[in-house]
Amino acid sequence: MTQLSLAYIFQHQKLLVDEKFQLPQVEKIASDLPIHHSDQVIARDLLEDEIIPDGYQLVPIRELIQTWSNTEFLQASRAIQLLEWRRNHKFCSHCGHATEIHPREYAMICPACAYHQYPRVQPCIITIITKGDDEILLAKSAHNKSNMYGLIAGFVEVGETLEEAVQREAFEEVGLKLKNVRYLSSQPWPFPSNLMIAFHAEYESGDIELQLEEISDAQFFKIDQLPEIPFKGSIAHAMITQMVENKKAS
Ligand SMILES: [Zn+2]
Description:
It contains 4 helices and 15 strands.
């Protein structure tokens, strides 16, 4: 009997699942990427001639976050990031030679110069800024046409601490100075390969001044009069709802 593996099969940011959002079982092939160092769970890109089985569909991974448990979503997120990393490291970034897949580790190795390329995550800070006891700063992205208001976020730059990144992003995007910057939690976020690192900070000084290329509106909202916020499953949603609960309880 053939051994079947549970498969994360992606086409871009979509994953193959059945009507109940369960993964298919497939026969493993050599190019599959093992997940969790076992052959029981694998990841691959949809093969060119692969036929989508009856009852299966390609669902955007962003939708799965609202259906799946956090553990399930994290594993899918790991699978898609590892696949993307492997796809983008077919050549050595040091000498340009074609790379080979390391037999045991998540590494692409260069047979010519022995350079090892490992998967990388991009640290990205996200900050909930509060003012007084009952106001939260929310900002609308200039790139997003919806009416959703989110939190200030951005990539950590080379040579910068996380706290400095929080201060810099807040100043660049909305012109505010912050105090009492404190770590809250983190979440891997596979769009495409970020580690979201969440902070709470308090407003210190300044008037809101928008960086218009990034932000189309930003305001301090009363916690009982919030606009539309990011979807459930995102770290921003968890941060905002948690803060509102804390403020209401205090
Ligand atoms: Zn090389």
